[in-house]
């Protein structure tokens, strides 16, 4: 298939064999290369784009995307997130002339959060193992309770208040039909290497920002200790057992996304943070105008579901979510398809 007139060659510095590695990006050298690339290919500033396209990258971070890190998203293939990011980088480089802006979400945590082991203890004072599911009956029967040593570092200072909140929290998840509270390995800890964006993708985003005079936008999510925050747009629970607000919706980011003519979505994981983000975006779209769903494009070959052999496999849940999004009017496409041929 001939290349679209808008597509460009892949710059020589991109090495797909290194996408699964972590390195220091040489910003000065890369910036000069991006300026030369823009001159060579006649790339105008993004501000001049007649049709504005946003590339939304959901949690493309080391913790999810680099083998050996805490929550590497392997998918059923075993190399899921690495292969996804090879395709994602190629997509961005080929479409530098078409992508107006890149926006990236960053899952951002500390040690004492409701989904980390240190938050909970059993009757012996032991913490739950990663991948332990904590359900309503587990909390109500006292199998798991909030670690009293965590209380001073959290929004509620008293342990009994935190226990009451914990019961409220798991009940809210169940009532909303959400996943059970899962204890995850410590991951995406702010200030650590697992929190950083994947080097190859960060390099591509920086190259785009210089070549198109369009700085990458970053959205922090998940830093509220008393709730999970899979979606970039809103937390799983927003109020505590007394009706006090503990976390809010990112309505400003919704407005930013829906102001574009097209929103192209990639990232990790297809079954969790990416799916929840799209679900919440779709909810906002339905409240405004269901036709807006047609401006959203999902890069199905640049995302993978959570699969841990012998433990959990969310492939089917992820596929059902994508089918639901397509049924609502969003487009499921592949990164290798020329944008000019998209519906």
In terms of topology, how is this protein built?
Blueprint: H1 27-41, E1 53-58, H2 62-65, H3 80-94, E2 101-107, E3 120-121, E4 133-134, H4 136-140, E5 145-146, H5 159-175, E6 181-182, H6 199-211, E7 217-221, H7 251-258, E8 262-267, H8 273-288, E9 296-299, E10 307-308, E11 312-313, H9 315-327, E12 331-333
Parallel strand pairs: 1-2, 1-8, 2-7, 8-9, 9-12
Antiparallel strand pairs: 3-5, 4-6, 10-11
Helix pairs in contact: 1-6, 3-6, 8-9
Explained architecture:
- With 343 residues, this protein is of the alpha/beta class.
- It has 2 domains: 43-108 and 188-313 and 329-341, 3-Layer(aba) Sandwich (Rossmann fold), CATH 3.40.50; 117-182, no CATH class.
- The chain is 31% helix and 13% strand.
- The strands form 4 sheets. It has a 6-stranded parallel sheet with strand order 7-2-1-8-9-12, with helices on both faces. Strands 3-5 form a two-stranded antiparallel sheet.
- β8, α8 and β9 (296-299) form a beta-alpha-beta unit.
- α8 (273-288) runs parallel beside α9.
